[in-house]
Amino acid sequence: MLVVHGGQEKNMIRITRTISIDEDEIRLEFIRASGPGGQNVNKVSTAVQLRFDVHNSHSLPGDVRERLVRLAGKRITENGVLIINAQRFRTQDRNRQDALDRLIELIHKAAEKPRLRRKTMPTSSSKKRRLESKRRRGETKRTRRTILRSED
């Protein structure tokens, strides 16, 4: 998505209807992928390391920022930089798109407001059913006991 802001064109990545991220806030670095890759594994830097500064991002509302930090877990540094490594594919372009997709998905999850839990009370009939089943179970166990015979 291309947006004109103050006479300058900016590429924006749309997350939700209200949240869009400026592409300038995302840094991509191409590194060598680990694991199998044949002849190119030691020559071509196909893996992507995406860095997104969550704490200093002007695109994210405060509540979304807090949820994103919680969701990111170990992928976020002490400075608040989210790091996503993508090396699933053999090409830079596909790994770049994979990293961006994962960032978008993570922010999209953080944008969803959690539903408030309302405390509920059990109904009187459900209490009666619970107590009745406990009574029946206790009765069953009582009938299984060994009977001690008294010696006459």
UniProtKB/TrEMBL annotation:
Q: Any stretches that span the bilayer, and where are they?
A: none
Species per Swiss-Prot/TrEMBL record? Candidatus Brocadia sinica JPN1
- Which PROSITE patterns would you find in this protein's record? RF_PROK_I (PS00745)
Q: Where is this region: Disordered?
A: 116-152
Q: Which InterPro entries match?
A: Pep_chain_release_fac_I, Pep_chain_release_fac_I_sf
| Residue ranges occupied by any Prokaryotic-type class I peptide chain release factors domain in the UniProt entry | 32-48
Give the UniProt family note: Belongs to the prokaryotic/mitochondrial release factor family.
Cross-referenced Gene3D superfamilies: 3.30.160.20
Q: What is the protein named? A: Class I peptide chain release factor
